TrEMBL record:
Site (Important for activity): D8
Single GO molecular function: D-xylulokinase activity
Organism: Geodermatophilus africanus
An annotated GO BP: xylulose catabolic process
Enzyme class: transferase
All residue ranges annotated as the Carbohydrate kinase FGGY N-terminal domain in the record: 5-218
Pfam families for the chain: FGGY_C, FGGY_N
Record has Signal as a keyword: no
PROSITE patterns from the UniProt entry: FGGY_KINASES_2 (PS00445)
Domain of life (superkingdom): Bacteria
EC number per UniProt: 2.7.1.17
Family: Belongs to the FGGY kinase family.
Name listed for the protein in its UniProt record: Xylulose kinase
Length: 471
């Protein structure tokens, strides 16, 4: 049996899976937590990777390994390869002002969309570099190379930091992660060093972008390294998403992406024109309100999530006209950072737990459906939706989703799909060929239902009714 390993270095933890390269069968796995916070010293990721690998039985007998990692995190290295300062993570918002400045300096959203397929927001690496140049000019001046979390871990696995280990010139990445920096274009496949210099104030070494199945070297022990990818692209690979498939991840935030054969460029900034890990593209939107909408509603009703699901399924479609606009943490898509949640249509007939539970599930799904409309508008017809994330474990979410989203829904069994995608990529690197290996996914459930347009129409009325008004 040939074994491959996949790593998911996420915001919260490092997960490792070891799988059979041919069948994809899980052989062993491990996990270790990451520190809390929106900035992390990269050696903490390395320590967590070491612990997770040890729990998974190490790399003994493993032929290849690849790393999936949280996108956008800014890792700055000096001339000697030492980390300049703790990495700013995707969820660190101190660079919001830098995003506005960079957008204006280049001439607005259209100019950025034309250049790199996205418009700067606080999560993207380019805005964090501008923040560094403004807030910590000495650290900016020391920065000789900039990479991302998965790039840095791949470099470390190749022996960086060991005597005689690789230097900055050995840094590598892939299309999926490079496309989230703000200075690499998915459409052209090239870096925009002028945009990096605009942000940082000077040039810097950036990782070489490898092809989807191109080896990134090997570990000192001879294990082949895959190029790895960012978390969203790795998850799509782990789910075996194909062109026209929408991946809808319902976690702390909601992520809706579509595998496309053509690049996207949205000047409004709603859709980020990312690349995927196979040579295609991955237009993506993110919402702030997802699984925690279910958590908050369950807490309000004094029930657990299973009972919330049962209640929601006991109420009629449309919840009798009761609508929850679930902007409990503001919202990013649409851009309403100061919005709050709104409940509309409460009557004596809908003033019960079942109707509120149904309204919460439908409101969550309608918010994601708005995102689905946005990614579909980039030009790729939607074939089906793949549900992932903790919120997808809700039976009510799975059963109501096709009626709200208007397309068939597949619900794969819960799993570590970022790590699985990295492992599948590692198997692809070993096998070569035009496509990654086909790994069966037993336990996937398919849900279909006639669309109920009235649910989204009613939701849209209330959503627009609660939109901020100019004074």
């Amino acid at each position: 049996m040939t074994l491959v390993a996949g790593v998911d270095s996420s915001t919260q933890a490092c997960k490792v899976v070891v799988r059979d390269a041919v069948s994809g069968a899980l052989v062993r796995e491990g996990r270790a937590p990451h520190p809390d916070g929106t900035e992390v010293d990269p050696p903490a990721w390395a320590a967590a990777l070491d612990r997770a690998l040890a729990q998974a039985g190490g790399l003994d007998g493993v032929a290849a390994v690849a790393v999936g990692g949280q996108q956008h995190g800014m890792v700055c290295l000096d001339d000697d390869g030492a980390v300049v300062r703790p990495a700013l993570l995707w969820n660190d918002t101190r660079s919001a002002g830098a995003a506005r400045d960079l957008t204006a300096e280049l001439g607005g959203g259209q100019a950025w969309a034309d250049a790199v397929g996205l418009v700067p927001v606080a999560s993207f690496t380019v805005t964090k570099l501008r923040w560094l140049a403004d807030a910590e000019p000495a650290n900016a001046a020391r920065t000789a190379a900039v990479c991302l979390p998965h790039d840095w871990l791949t470099w470390r696995l190749a022996g960086a930091g060991l005597p005689g280990g690789p230097g900055l010139e050995a840094l590598v990445t892939d299309r999926g992660d490079a496309s989230g920096t703000g200075y690499w274009s998915a459409a052209t496949g090239e870096y925009r060093p002028d945009l990096l210099e605009r942000a940082l104030g000077h040039g810097a070494v950036v990782p070489r972008v490898l092809g989807p199945a191109e080896a990134a070297g090997s570990t000192p022990g001879g294990v082949v390294l895959g190029p790895g990818s960012g978390d969203n692209a790795a998850a799509a690979l782990g789910l075996a998403a194909e062109p026209g498939d929408v991946v809808c991840s319902i976690g702390t935030s909601g992520v809706v992406s579509i595998v496309s054969t053509t690049p996207a460029a949205d000047p409004s900034g709603t859709v980020a024109g990312f690349a995927d890990a196979t040579g295609n593209f991955l237009p993506l939107i993110a919402t702030l309100n997802a699984a925690r909408v279910l958590d908050a509603t369950a807490q309000l009703l004094g029930v657990d999530l299973d009972e919330l699901s049962r209640l929601a399924l006991s109420a009629p479609p449309g919840a009798g006209g009761l609508v929850l606009v679930p902007y409990l943490e503001g919202e990013r898509t649409p851009d309403r950072p100061d919005s709050t949640g709104a409940l509309h249509g409460l009557t004596l007939a809908t003033a019960d737990r079942a109707h509120l539970a149904r309204a919460a599930v439908e409101g969550l799904l309608c918010g994601l459906a708005d995102g689905l409309d946005a990614v579909a508008a980039t030009g790729t017809p939607v074939r089906r939706v793949l549900l992932a994330g903790g919120g997808a474990r809700s039976e009510a979410v799975r059963r109501i989703a096709p009626a709200v989203l208007g397309v068939p829904v597949l619900a794969p069994p819960p799993g570590e799909y970022v790590a699985d995608g990295a492992a599948r990529q590692a198997a692809w690197v070993l096998a070569g060929g035009e496509a990654p290996p086909e790994w069966p996914r037993p336990g996937t459930e398919r849900y279909e239902a006639d669309p109920v347009p009235a649910v989204r129409e009613r939701y849209a009325d209330v959503r627009d009714l609660t939109a901020p008004r100019l004074r």
